[in-house]
Amino acid sequence: MAGRPYRISPALAVSLILVAALLAGCSVARPAETTRLRVLQMNLCNSGMAKGCYTGRSVDRAAEVIRAERPDVVTLNEICSGDVAALEQAMVQVHDGTVVAAFQPARNGRTGDPYRCVNGQQYGVGVLAHLAAPEGGHTVHNGFYPAQDPADPEQRAWLCVEAGTVYFACTTHLAYTSAALALAQCSHLLGVAIPQLHARARYQPTVVSGDLNLRHGGAPDVRSCVPADYRHRHDGGVQQFMATADVNIESTRSIGMAGTTDHAAFLVTLTTNREQHPAA
């Protein structure tokens, strides 16, 4: 006689389904999250000290470019502290969510005080970053390079904004008096400061954009300080873009500044890939 079929009770069936779901959740990683970013680098030559490129009109032109291009991140070199607020407003006009602004002055090596523009405001570098909801909160990180030119009172600095749990956006403006010194500063930023930042805070995709006063194919070559696994693009001059390996660069483009400064703006479009931990 054939045996009677074994029947599972409804309660046991539900229990088995729940156990299977829990086991699957523990062993299957969620897919990486992808974020698309447009990073705009600008050297505005707005200190008033460099007469050959100072026009007094570069901040207005920068605001026009921001409104037209709608970047997610703007890195700024050779600016005065008051310029940040003006350009932050341009970002607010074209973005929902939150826009954060950070400024880092260079240091006067003779006095230890912040370096100054001709108008008396602090002089340095800045970052503007758009934080799309629900990714909230930001932290500012900064520092000065251990290697500086003793003959130049302007001591160079770096600045990073930790944008929620999405990315780090960094900028710097390196020494112009010596390419070897600029290379040492670049090596410190990419080889020491940013790795320490990742260890101290948390790792996230990281972009670095700025006027490094170093060139692709130059002597020394800027590639000498870029880690082997980093992405790297340049504007054909001294403005460089570097990013960790989990960043995919889609395109780059130079944007004219209508003679208001001596550098074109440099726009990089990219995606970041954040690996997700397995579900608990």
TrEMBL record:
<dbReference type="GO" id="GO:0003824">
    <property type="term" value="F:catalytic activity"/>
</dbReference>
<protein>
    <recommendedName>
        <fullName>Endonuclease/exonuclease/phosphatase domain-containing protein</fullName>
    </recommendedName>
</protein>
<feature type="domain" description="Endonuclease/exonuclease/phosphatase">
    <location>
        <begin position="58"/>
        <end position="217"/>
    </location>
</feature>
<dbReference type="InterPro" id="IPR036691">
    <property type="entry name" value="Endo/exonu/phosph_ase_sf"/>
</dbReference>
<dbReference type="Pfam" id="PF03372">
    <property type="entry name" value="Exo_endo_phos"/>
</dbReference>
<dbReference type="InterPro" id="IPR005135">
    <property type="entry name" value="Endo/exonuclease/phosphatase"/>
</dbReference>
